[in-house]
Design brief:
five-stranded parallel sheet, Rossmann fold, globular, three-stranded parallel sheet, alpha/beta, 2 domains, about 40% helix, about 290 residues
């Protein structure tokens, strides 16, 4: 089975469009504020994807673009502006920030209630506690959305995550725990890594090394979500995942492609968080 992210994204957009219609009927236009310092190609590419996902579902976008040379105070003024603007329900802050700006200071200045990309300590605390406050990092939640769309029940299953970042590995583990999976996080110091991965029912790979996970890691019956997006090691056009797709696909029960997998869903998750944030406003108090 191909765990096609574009298919999962299309289904999610249908649901989101109906939610936006409901909110607009009440006079609320869910709005995302995009805050960017500089113009790195990766940031511009994701900004384009985010704007498209929002446009496809009726979510409005406000852009706050600062030059690479902007000071920390300049950025903090923008953060204060979006925090206080009641028409902006969620904020996407592009990181990493330029080296002259203190990331911790800026992150802590953003209100967790508007942190729809899950970068603040408040969001991570909400995820850890299961309180429902804040939002999970979008890429981590995209992995779960793909599994849900293809009706892959993780309850009681063994899940292995390759990678322990705060953006994907750790939050994905918490999201899987909420769905009653038994979770193991692996990393560069894990012993007998291929054997550990083969024992899993669900595998999420997020190590950022092109084509580094081959057939020796897999067995029949597994579902694999490949989060990696890497330049092809042979210098060819396009991108590839962390998993050797051609080796894994004939073995496992299902695998997400790269491209066309997790990345296709991430911007939709961001837009869905904006909708949820708008629905949580005191005048709405709707739970989507």
């Amino acid at each position: 089975m191909l765990l096609n992210g574009k298919e999962a994204a299309a289904a999610l957009k249908e649901t989101m469009a109906k939610q936006v219609e409901y909110l607009k009927a009440k006079g609320v236009v869910p709005t995302l504020g995009i805050v960017r310092v500089g113009g790195k190609p990766a940031d511009l590419s994701y900004e384009k994807s985010a704007a498209k996902a929002c446009g496809d579902t009726g979510v409005a976008v406000k852009n706050y673009a600062l030059p690479e040379t902007a000071s920390q105070d300049d950025l903090l003024k923008v953060i204060k502006e979006v925090n206080e603007d009641e028409s902006v329900h969620g904020v996407l802050l592009f990181r990493p920030l330029p080296p002259h700006i203190n990331d911790n200071v800026v992150r802590r200045a953003l209100l967790p209630a508007k942190d729809v990309d899950g970068i603040t300590d408040g969001s991570m605390a909400g995820l850890y506690s299961g309180s429902g406050e804040g939002y999970a990092p979008c890429t981590a939640e995209s992995c779960i959305q793909i599994l849900d769309h293809f009706k892959i029940d993780v309850a009681g299953k063994k899940a292995v995550i390759l990678g322990r970042s705060t953006v994907i590995g750790k939050p994905a583990a918490l999201l899987l725990l909420e769905k009653n999976a038994t979770v193991t996080i692996c990393h560069s110091k894990t012993r007998n890594l291929p054997q550990t991965v083969r024992e899993a029912d669900i595998v999420i790979v997020a190590i950022g090394r092109a084509l580094s996970v081959g057939k020796e890691y897999f067995r029949a019956g597994q579902y694999v979500v490949d989060v990696g997006v890497n330049p092809k090691p042979d210098g060819g056009k396009g991108v590839c995942g962390d998993v050797k797709f051609d080796e894994a696909e004939p073995i496992v029960a299902g695998i997400s492609p790269v491209p066309g997998g997790v990345g296709s869903v991430t911007a939709c998750i961001l837009a869905s968080h904006v909708i949820r944030a708008a629905a949580k406003q005191p005048e709405n108090t709707v739970m989507f």
